[in-house]
Amino acid sequence: xxxxxxRNLRRVYDVGKHQVRALDGxxxxxxxxxxxxxxxxSGSGKSTLLHLLGGLDQPSGxxxxxxxxxxxxxxxxxxxxxxxxxxxxxxxxxxxxxTLSAQENILLPLIIDGKKTKxxxxxxxxxxxxxxxxxxxxxxxxxxxxxxxxxxxxxxxLITEPKLLLADEPTGNLDSKTGKQVMELLAxxxxxxxxxxxxxxxxxxxxxxxxxxxxxxDGKIQKEVSFLEGQSISSxxxxxxxxxxxxx
Length: 248
Ligand SMILES: Nc1ncnc2c1ncn2[C@@H]1O[C@H](COP(=O)(O)OP(=O)(O)O)[C@@H](O)[C@H]1O
Ligand SMILES: [Mg+2]
Prior knowledge:
- With 248 residues, the protein is an alpha/beta fold.
- The protein has one domain: P-loop containing nucleotide triphosphate hydrolases (Rossmann fold, 3-Layer(aba) Sandwich), CATH 3.40.50.
- It has eight helices and ten strands.
- The strands form two sheets. It has a six-stranded mixed sheet with strand order 6-7-8-3-9-10. Strands 2-1-4-5 form a four-stranded antiparallel sheet, with helices on one face.
- The protein is globular.
- The model has no long low-confidence stretch (mean pLDDT 94).
- The structure holds adenosine-5'-diphosphate and magnesium ion.
- Adenosine-5'-diphosphate (ADP) binds at residues 13, 15, 20, 22, 40, 42-48.
């Protein structure tokens, strides 16, 4: 089953007299449980694609179907609700609220959606264990390391049990060891929770955790690679490096 389908997505920016085609006709089908990595040079449209998929930005053209609903046919209010309930977001710079504790940050999406957090106590405990922050739950973001803050933001993205997790360079601001830990956590979520993920990354090692790879160039899909089930991370990383080097 498809969680999300994007058809011929376009995003054109007017910059002075010029037009920048940030995204130039991208179609994508995300199947339930699939982990997709999006790669491509800086400026190729990766963030634009993720923002459109997550409704943080509006397309200039094309269609998005999310959880069986054609987003463009919904009112703004209904589209917002649909996204809030079906999509979790992890950003490069965590985007946590500085005055809230780790736990309060994790619960925030529920509060915004008017849900009673009491019903989610078990889920919260599970997630705190999963991301290894049970004894940091009362710390504020400034009292946490970068890796810990990113783990809070991952738990926040998952608290609503979204059908789709979108991650834009989730390890991009972390040192390689911490980045690897966060990456392994994401890969575990894909596997254990059967979490559907679309992740943008520069890092071939991070991308090697995915089932499928999409290379963007100049706002278009330039190439796709599907991995075999059970293929080792190191062999996948080698294929990705080869693809990047050959530049095709
Ligand atoms: N708000 C904006 N205004 C004008 N141009 C933009 C804006 N955001 C992105 N772009 C342009 O769109 C293209 C794709 O950007 P982006 O999606 O951020 O690329 P990536 O994430 O792959 O680095 C780039 O050429 C970028 O300069
Ligand atoms: Mg980007």
